[in-house]
Amino acid sequence: MNTLKISIVTACWNSAATLEDTLRSVVGQTYGAIEHIVVDGGSTDGTMDIVRKYADLYQSRGLELKWISEPDKGIYDAMNKGIGLASGDVVGLLNSDDFFTSPTVMERVAAEFDSRHSADASENSKLDAVYGDIHYVSPNRLDKCVRYYSSKGFSREKMRMGFMPAHPSFYCRREIYRKFGLFDISFKIAADFEQLLRLIYIHRINIRYIPMDFVTMRTGGASSSGFSSHKRIYAEHMRAYKKNRVNSNFLLESSRYLYKIFEVCRANFS
Predict the structure, then answer these.
(1) Among 87, 200, 210, 234, which residue's Cβ finds the most Cβ atoms within 10 Å?
(2) In the chain, where the domains are located
(3) DSSP symbols for the chain
């Protein structure tokens, strides 16, 4: 009986300061059928030296490590390259400044897709994607949560309010990307939202929430860096709705920020 193979794509550029944490968290997974694809944008800071240093460790664990290093058109272009190179049954993304929260994340993902672990094999055989939770930490305090992003309350209809599952926890069958497309790189900061809107809201792929913290993320990324980025996210969300003919408006889209404030308060006072 074949083992489900999971491809993890990491896009990076000048990520020498953080990439080692990412690689260590992949090597430390208890699940063995993993292909890790690192797509580098032509780093000049020794990023690729770190990748090469880990090649033997991956091999000793029975994991596949692949990499390319060449100029790209941004992070979403790099992610598209990685998904295109993937050979796994299921594909997920792990950013170069993030790492898995526990060593059993991939084992849990595989179990959800594997019908042998379910009382209802027919239901699992139709499962297209899973998603879970993530949490944010300060770059200089990796042990302190500053925001917990739970996907538990996500629903398709909430996408009209700008909600989406925590994207770094999203693991999807590779065939779904072949069928419905990759990231639209004309979106510079919200291509992940546009893609999930297309897959989940428009094409109604079969998804399932896993109540588990998948990824630890450092704050300060492209989608969490101040008012100007949130203004751009709003504009790109509205463009994503228009592109996919989804009805939304300013009030619906803005309401999700109240929920974000609640998340931050809960993290700080828990």
Answers:
(1) 200
(2) 6-269
(3) -PPPPEEEEEEESS-TTTHHHHHHHHHT-S---EEEEEEE---SSSHHHHHHHTHHHHHHTT-EEEEEE---SSHHHHHHHHHHH--SSEEEE--TTEEESSTTHHHHHHHHH-GGG-S-HHHHHT--EEEEEEEEEETTEEEEEEEEE--TT--GGGGGGT----GGG-EEEHHHHHHH----TT-SS-HHHHHHIIIIIIS---EEEEEEEEEEEES--TTSS-HHHHHHHHHHHHHHHHHTT----HHHHHTHHHHHHHHHHHHHH-
Each residue of 249-258: pLDDT tens digit? 877 777 776 6
What pLDDT score was predicted for residue 270? Answer: 59
What superfamily in CATH does domain 6-269 come from? Spore Coat Polysaccharide Biosynthesis Protein SpsA; Chain A (3.90.550.10)
pTM of the model: 0.90
Amino acid at 8: I
Single out the residue of 107, 43, 6, 77 nearest to residue 19, CA to CA: 43
Locate tokens 């991939």: which residue?
106
